Amino acid sequence: MNDTTAGLGLIRNRTFDEIAVGDSASLQRTLTAQDIQLFAVLSGDVNPQHLDAEFAASTRFHGVIAHGMWGGALISAVLGTRLPGPGTVYLGQTLKFLRPVRVGDTLTITVTVAARDEAKKRLTLACACTNQAGEAVIEGEASVLAPTEKIERAAATLPEVRINAAGDGLPRLLAHVKPLGAIRVAVVHPCDALSLGGAMDARAAGLIEPVLVGPRAKVEAAALAAGVDLAGIAIEDVPHSHAAAARAAELAGQGAVEALMKGSLHTDELMSAVLDARAGLRTKRRLSHCFLMQTPAYPRPFILTDAAINIAPTLDEKADIIRNAIDLAHAIGVAEPRVAILAAVETVNPRMAATLDAAALCKMADRGQIAGGVLDGPLAFDNAVSAAAARVKGIASPVAGQADVLVVPDLESGNMLAKQLEYMGDAATAGIVLGAKVPIVLTSRADARDTRMASCAIAVLLAHRWRTTPP
Fold this sequence. Notes:
Elements: E1 4-5, E2 10-12, E3 24-30, H1 33-43, H2 48-51, H3 53-57, H4 68-81, E4 89-97, E5 106-117, E6 122-130, E7 136-145, E8 152-154, H5 169-177, E9 183-188, H6 193-204, E10 208-214, H7 216-226, E11 234-237, H8 241-253, E12 259-262, H9 267-275, E13 288-294, E14 302-305, H10 315-331, E15 338-342, H11 353-366, E16 374-379, H12 381-385, H13 387-392, E17 405-407, H14 411-424, E18 428-434, E19 440-441, H15 449-468
Parallel strand pairs: 9-10, 9-12, 10-11, 12-19, 14-17, 15-16, 15-17
Antiparallel strand pairs: 1-2, 2-8, 3-5, 4-7, 5-6, 6-7, 13-14, 13-18
């Protein structure tokens, strides 16, 4: 029985005299990753079994599980809001934890009156939490002092709570990368204060040794506008942006620099120079862009691809996009990334090309044509990132709800998704182009300083990795 009046925003109790042995009340709650994080914040219990997916995978539970007392708190919620409800005084509780609770599990929490003490107005209630399979997760017994007066109050409106985990991403990334040492990077046409300042910030952080490739007069004017001292900085003087792209690609092909960084020129100018056979930067792979993102609503960093290079990729091109993303995942320490191939639906529909491509890509992975990760698709976005959504839809998948890589159908959908996550989801981002012999930092004029720094840090990570295992 639910004693909260639906639609009216009221919460009511039941007095001791209104309660009989056998009366019961319940609620349901589906565990999310944010629930675990929030409980850890409130309790201070940062046991890695609950928060560190890599550690948790090696334990007897083979994955992250909820804190046991999360279920206990839900029992308290039933007692305090439904039976008996407001005015209840919690006196005691016993609990037995019978099974782990995982992200996506839906618990039904039920309290049933087992005994009444008329003299003391006390109730003993049997408490049970069961999961969606009907299995007992928690059992126990509660003792409460029941209210003797009727209470009816407007239900409190709770504030929206967001766990901002993205804020520590850049410092941790820089701390990880800095011991590797700076790499030489050709900064292509850094002829405005923003692009030049980004390169100099990365230099100050010990990430790169920039080689500025552009018209000297424009570069120096940009430095003056940005208040940047160019003493000791190498400048390759070229007449215009096309020449800057060609010269930077040439330097990379000769091994004089280990990465390229886009300045104030169009992306297609830079990519054309990289793809020119004379530069010697092409590999067998298609060039593709990867966003490395971290958002407060998701428990781990993830890769989104391709949102910047390939407009309407073919099946073969999508295969390379996935291979590049898997390589990036390996570089950041994800040994076997879970790759979700996105579409509008999670079933194969002959009239929706994205679903057909997803099915074919998964079969290619089964045949060993795409290696190093676990693929599944088509998956709608909610199923890829929410175990609860996947469970509701009956999707049994090693990827659903825990994707490390999100592969979008085309550039338009990817670009919109990336910007939505960044501007409305508070995502921290870094962008990199893979598929050439050197990593390419491809930033936008609207990118924040942290984004530029993080992108350079990823380039450093890849460059050092490719010294021993070239792409």
